Amino acid sequence: MNPPSYRTASDRETAMEADARNAEQVEFWNGPGGRHWIKLQEMWDIVLGPVGMAIFERAAVRPGERVIDIGCGCGGTTIELGQSVGRTGEVLGLDISAPMLARAEERRPKGMPIQFLQADATTHPLSPGHFDLLFSRFGVMFFAEPARAFANLRRGLRPKGRLAFSCFRDSKDNPWMLVPLKAAYEHVPPLPKLGPEDPGPFAFASEERVRRILGDAGFGAIRMEPVDLAFDLAAGRGLDAAVAATLEIGATSRAVDGQPPAVRDAVAASVRKVLAPYQRGPSVPLPAALWIVTAINP
């Protein structure tokens, strides 16, 4: 394997060619979304750790394999993939967020066969048939044209290559997000209502839709396994940490973005009140409902 090449953050900001329909997501993840994740990266790696484990079990990553980590963010799963494939393998972490990729590169262990690239998975040209596995932890629900994005990614996958990713089931089955968000709505206007197929965390809630998208993109042997977990919003650091996390990441963070300090304080008090019954010692676990999706490139 040739040594991976790296781009500076400034190079990435000018080099990426994105689908125009993904412009809103590019702006968000290169702005407030990326900043919030970097701030709490270590904590959210802990919160989402069980999700990564569930995908790894289904993906069956092997030494020497070539893998794409779609929506790799700050690189936590990319580094785990690098450890699994070893020095004879190769991992490409793709993301649209320059600041998150800069953080990922800071964390990259020396000598690990990883490359981070700012790219839009919908349009970025991949070497045909080069990769063994497409992997993603919650990085695929934000495409404006998901069938086109998955078709583009499949071109980089070898015949019989694998796809494995996680996405959320219905919002009503995910109290980890809805409980604090409803508390915030006591003080701030509701976020714009998304349609069932609009890009967002619950865009892949429908099993029928996901099967249709992947089928249209050319995948076969599609399997969708419902998985129920608990997200410890505190990451073992107590109720205060859980409240702070909900105000920095996810829908509640978007709802309070730009609000004055007095309003944010009121939201924090309401969120604390609704999360307190879930507290178990230093942890604050709330239910999370996922799909673990696998498929094959015929």
Topology, pairings included?
Elements: H1 9-15, H2 23-29, H3 32-39, H4 41-47, H5 49-59, E1 66-70, H6 76-85, E2 90-95, H7 98-107, E3 114-118, E4 131-137, H8 146-155, E5 157-168, H9 175-184, H10 207-216, E6 220-232, H11 239-248, H12 251-256, H13 261-275, E7 285-296
Parallel strand pairs: 1-2, 1-4, 2-3, 4-5
Antiparallel strand pairs: 5-7, 6-7
Helix pairs in contact: 1-7, 3-7, 8-10, 9-13, 11-13
Q: List the uncertain runs.
A: 1-15
Q: What is the number of helical segments per DSSP (H or I, 4+ residues)?
A: 13
Strand percentage lies at 15-25%
Gap from first CA to last CA: 26 Å
Q: Level of helix content?
A: 40-55%
Backbone structural class: alpha/beta
Quantity of strands, as a count: 7
Give the overall shape, derived from the CA principal axes: globular
Count of distinct structural domains: 1
Characterize the largest beta sheet: strand count, sense, and whether it forms a barrel. Answer: 7 strands, mixed
**What is the annotated CATH architecture?**
3-Layer(aba) Sandwich
Mean pLDDT across all amino acids:
92
The succession of helices and strands, N to C, reads HHHHHEHEHEEHEHHEHHHE
- What's the gyration radius in Å? 19 Å
- What is the strand arrangement across the widest sheet? 3-2-1-4-5-7-6
CATH domain class: Alpha Beta
Describe this structure in words.
This protein is an alpha/beta fold and 298 residues long. The chain has one domain: 3-Layer(aba) Sandwich (Rossmann fold). 41% of the residues lie in helices and 20% in strands. Helix 11 packs across helix 13.
